[in-house]
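Predict both folds.
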Amino acid sequence: MKKDVKILKQDTVYNGFFQMEKYYLQHTLFAGGWSDEMTRELFVRGNCIAVILYDVKHDKVILIEQFRVGAVTNPINSPWLIEIVAGVIEEGETADEVARRESVEEAGCEILDLIRINSFYLSPGGSSEQITLFCGLVNSENVGGIHGVAQEHEDIFVRAVSFAEAYAMVVQNKIDSAIPIIALQWLALNRHKL
């Protein structure tokens, strides 16, 4: 563990599809010395990938739509979110391998070229999850339909839309999930280079 944190005790308070841990800890202070003992809960989730699938020739983005339990209690918006391909990095897999696998499973797309964009935390105030974001160059000509892995309860609607339409969805708040917003903003700044 890092030298600026003392973990005094750690408990697993829930272990199911995800895991929740409770830490009793202290950390160094900017003014010097150590903080008082505090407790923090940590939502433990493996690291993940996300891929914005883009067809340079046709200037199209592959979007997916699927049910997300995190949005189920929102009284205004639907829990069916417009997103991009994503998945968990399992033991022994590389981020690149998962990006290619998930693109086939979730969108029926073979990646022709894979470009690493960045890695970042989604919500470091309470979650361990880190995302590696990619741009996957694809051919969108035969893309669409319903995809996903049945035993993972995936029911994913896939469509190819123009970049302009996809970006308009961000501006109009029709895409309200952070990862596709970040990916589409990156694409807006970089697609002229692809």
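Second protein follows, with its predicted structure tokens after the sequence.
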Amino acid sequence: MASNELPSNQDKLFTLAEDMADGCKTHEAVINLKQNKEVDLRTDLGTATASAGLYDASRSNKIVLGTTQTVADSNAKSYLGSARKILAVRHGETWSEAWLQTGFPNYSTAVPPTVAERQALLFSLNTYFIANPAHENAPLTVTAAQGLLLGTALSAARSAVNDGATDSGQKKNTRDTAVTGLRKRMRGLITELNQLLGDEDPRWMAFGLNMPGASNLPDVPDLPVLTAGAPGHVIADWPDVARADHYRVYKKVAGVDPDFLFALSVNDSDATLPGLPGGVAVSIRVTATNDSGESQPSLEAQIVVL
């Protein structure tokens, strides 16, 4: 018997919700839907997709902010490395009380290992060079002003990263709440349809759903389209299959394999098969799988490998 489990993948969930809303538009009046109508489903879907878009944008922004911090920190490391060499001429290579006034932490003359410590040292060196202007090295841009400039930039970048992480976390919570609401609405519609439609009523498919009385095995994939890729590689592509969670690709190399052999399993409806012998014909066929089992294989396609 076929089931109507909701997809775990967000994009597939949104696609199914759109199909279910289309089904409601066509059939809700005729079958007398009461609790879960098109307007309800589209409202919940709109909220979920909008919040998902905002969350995705916040994740992209986090990457940009992280890159800005990395650049600011790289500039800080370069400055601190130059400052350390200049100060070592005056105070010695190893840490001593003379280094205390510079702000180098951890009783060490090494550039600090953490971003927070490097930021603090930039501001300390700004104070140090203001008090000791003769120790600056303008040609190497090891100055009080440069220390302040880099420290301010790094501080701003780190603050932006923290704010971005907070914003992303809040938007994720909003997205998760909206998707949970959409799932509840979709499950409610499936429950209501179970009360209104027979197990083999074809109108189930108008909602993008399986007829409960039908087999839950995936449909048989169409003939795969084969393309020669890099030497020894073949690219196989085929349309998405109803009820398929995964696909299994089988190959038969002419003159080598007596029958089809399992090659690989993929989540999407395309695959690249590597390591094939050049100049030899290879046949490919595909099956679709889900928790109920494996479909019959597609028709076989053949290509000569480069």
